[in-house]
What we know:
The structure holds two protein chains of two kinds. By secondary structure, chain A is α+β, with helices and mostly antiparallel strands. Helices cover 27% and strands 25% of the residues of chain A.
Amino acid sequence: xxxxxxxxxxVPTKRWSGQSVPRKEDRRLTQGQGVFVDDVKRHxxxxxxxxxxxxxxxxxxxxxxxKAEEIKGVFGxxxxxxxxxxxxxFFQIAGAPGGQIKDFSxxxxxxxxxxxxxxxxxxxxxxxxxxxxxxxxxxxEPLPALVDARKALDADAPLIHDDAGGNLMWQxxxxxxxxxxxxxxxxxxxxxxxxxFHRFNSTPLECDGALVExxxxxxxxxxxxxxxxxxxxxxxxxxxMRCGLDKLRFVTQDIGGGFGNKITSxxxxxxxxxxxxxxxxxxxxxxWRTDFHMSMSHGxxxxxxDTEVAVKADGTLLGFRTKALDDAGAWLRYEPLxxxxxxxxxxxxxxxxHIRVDFTQVATxxxxxxxxxxxxxxxxxxFTERVIDIVAKELELDPVExxxxxxxxxxxxxxxxxxxxxxxxxxxxxxxxxxxxxIGPVEERRRxxxxxxxxxxxxxxxxxxSGTNNFGQSQLINAELQFSGNNEVATVKLDIxxxxxxxxGTTPQGQGHETTAAQVVADILECSVDDVHxxxxxxxxxxxxxxxxGTYASQFAVTGLxxxxxxxxxxxxxxxxxxxxxxxxxxxxxxxxxGGGVRIKDNPDAFLPFMACGAIINANNAGLPDDLxxxxxxxxxYRPPFQVPDVERKYGNLTLTYAAQIHVAVVExxxxxxxxxxxxxxxxxxxxxxxxxxxVEGQVMGATAQAIGAAVHETYEYDDDGNLLTPNFYDYHxxxxxxxxxxxxxxxxxxxPFTPLGTKGMGEGGGAGIHAxxxxxxxxxxxxVTDSHNPYQRVWELLx
Amino acid sequence: xxxxxxxxGTLYERDVEPRKLLIHFLRDDLDLTGSHIGCDTGNCGAxxxxxxxxxxxxxxxxxxxxxxxxxETVEGLADGDELNALQQAFSDHHALQCGYCxxxxxxxxxxxxxxSPSPTDDEIRKALQGxxxxxxxxxxxxxxxxxxxx
Lengths: 800, 150
């Protein structure tokens, strides 16, 4: 594995940011001392197990829990009927028709996918809870299942949600520019009947879970969980449970991977809360792998139909129109936000200005979808990349040249897209050159492979990792929604013995927030990262969170670290103010922070260590001036500069930053069997200023590995009856150590002009790998690739 | 059934249900929560421990089958608070992100390095093929094991 850097690397101007500081988290995690949700135990707790539907679509005619409840050691059960009485349906993001569906934490009256939770059983051991679940008798009256989203709007399609009156959940037309003029100007119109982006997700190794305690005296639930977006869970759960958000305390520490898949566990958390109250004991739930695969957070499956691309003979792209069809699965748990999130990257990396997307989202009898690394943008970027390579093939042009001809150029930055998004900075052509250079000349390798009887292919994937959402984009889905902007919180304080304590609102799942936050703090306070104590995890009791707190959507390096920067600068100012008073009225301009304390610039001997500052303000404050407004406990809310988008035109800036990725994959295909190896791979990334390069590179690698897995192996396939065919790691093959190709990485740094640290959120750029492999297979086989998932059998079919 | 197991040098004697898996015995009964569970099918390797010198997935063994054996888990790797060379190499090479697979990875690598102190790249890959990591893509893990072998 090698890494290349551009010739001119931004030199770190400060000591800690920009360095690969070893991670603070590693000491506990390498010793098995992390605290993951299943590690949390309480006296007398009961283990929860869900009884799940064996049918994709069926009426529930009766439920009998009596035999289960008779067993010694079984504490109790919860049914959909109880849930419907005790809670209100979850708030829906959609307006009508999708917004009319009634979603509860357990199935009520009907099941809508295989694996849907129907009853919850709590017992004194995990094993007993499973045994007892077997004794729950549920009678079903099966209904025809709807598995293929393309048939969802047919007149004879099974109706999944009576309340919605049909299977249409959301529909919207996005159109910008002048399509008629673009197609009139075009030398060629390239038509693509159907492209399909498949269903998969990132399968974090730790499944979902919670330990929930109910305090009868205060009416408050404490929810130890690995949910990665507690702000969203709270908004969903409070109204449903008819309680204020102060009654829901969310606590996380270490989370075993999230990738977006742990955003929508609120239905299960509600079941845990109701049972903790009903049974008056702590309730522990740890999802089994099979349960995760069957019921949690599949990525959005999407089709693109009747695509037409207006293009000049030289490969200049003018515009496109397409019909996107999105399969939401059985419930709208975060949807239909996928119907707008893609618009953050409407033109991909290209300068075409005339675009129309008719977007339709439907329900099916499959597991509900929700965010998955690269959420909704990955599908759309895969589409734009496929279009580029199909156009290049149709016009017999070099895909490298078509890209370079159409890329948004470095001199165009900041670049306003046709729908009003602002690409902040970057140099895509330079990145492509770097990636191709990493791979090196291929003609000799192509000949060599051909001599060995192999087909040889090279493919490029160019993607954007848009980060820091403007939640105002939700209003493009439903103009009634009252969400916009974004925020994140950090608190930095100096305690009695001079401890620098940092509290984040985020919920990291391996991104090293404790380390990068300490780097930012240490630079401002002129101390060592070892002096900075960043609390592990999230606790809504810390008062260090806001409505959008959490870790999702590529934003920590912007929202999280900007909050840390803001709070630390407040603290630095307060330390100086305090020292000025202690020194007898020295103006703050005459003071500086250095060496773990504050001193007078012209008289460095006049030095007050942080320990003294902390002790004075917290425990020895008599005699301080009355007007000294200092607490040394500073809370800062970072709010990105956003406006509410124009709902009518579907126009506005939807995200603050645009990290970029260019990946190149090289494949060798066996023409007899369709089997192929990825034999070489390069990933070049630009996420602006890198606070910790090693952590950034780790994200690039991880995203790449997930892309390779998704492109070659990983898929949630259903049979015609709606049975999931890949419900565990036997059938759902994630990459293993032996599957990994040689990897070379490179980077450039284009600091964002819009963020306090020049950073861009990153980590979700793996989609580039899916495109790169599709393009490489197309190059090798000569057949147009129309699916994002290309197992060996499909490649064999392409060769026939 | 009565079970006596020596784990990281401490003898544990407990009465366990015959059907209890070794991983649940470690985690739920003994509170040795360093070893993790990532699947139901023996694929992921997060629960890997060393039993009588052999690398095993502790979800594929009943606790009663471990009766009388000597078990090594991730909690026993460090010398007091001092990370051993392999643990340190994992940190140095950023071979972990969320850390959930890490205990199992470390035990698999430990078993490899005992058997083959200077493993080839191929040996490292084969030794880790039973451990799934969803964060790193394995590349840095290979580097860490190589570094620890030096």
